[in-house]
Design a protein that fits this description.
Layout: E1 7-14, E2 17-25, H1 31-38, H2 55-74, H3 78-104, H4 107-123
Antiparallel strand pairs: 1-2
Helix pairs in contact: 2-3, 3-4
Length: about 130
């Protein structure tokens, strides 16, 4: 497709330390457009955690949401019911996995599972 293309190497540095090398197709990416995303803004901060988790409230939220979803599932029929049943089974499987993680006391994995569970429920329209 790009037989005559030149693949240019860009060396990325930060604070006069090399942090990596990027090879790109020069026909697709021009120098002045490519360098801009590499520049880092040191004034930006990423929030990774707010306070401590209240696992009891999270459990209540999950249980209440699952009960509500199950009640909605019961009142549907046809193809929608099959789709909802598949989703409910996935959520219940996640609940079982969360229970097993609590037994193993692996806090990092427990937090990941709570994040995933909260996201799945948020996608379904449940808010904590």
């Amino acid at each position: 497709m790009f037989d005559a293309s030149s693949f240019k190497k860009y060396y990325v540095d930060e604070d006069n330390n090399a942090i990596g090398k990027i090879t790109c197709n020069f026909d697709l990416i021009h120098n002045e457009q490519f360098i801009k995303p590499i520049i880092r803004d040191n004034d930006l901060k990423e929030i990774t955690k707010f306070g401590n988790r209240d696992y009891l409230k999270l459990d209540q939220y999950i249980i209440t949401s699952l009960n509500n979803y199950y009640n909605r599932l019961i009142s549907t029929s046809g193809e929608e019911r099959n789709n909802m049943l598949q989703t409910y089974r996935r959520l219940y499987s996640m609940w079982q996995e969360l229970h097993n993680l609590k037994i193993s006391k692996n806090l990092k994995e427990i937090d990941k599972m709570y994040d995933l569970f909260s996201y799945e429920l948020y996608i379904l329209g449940y808010l904590n």
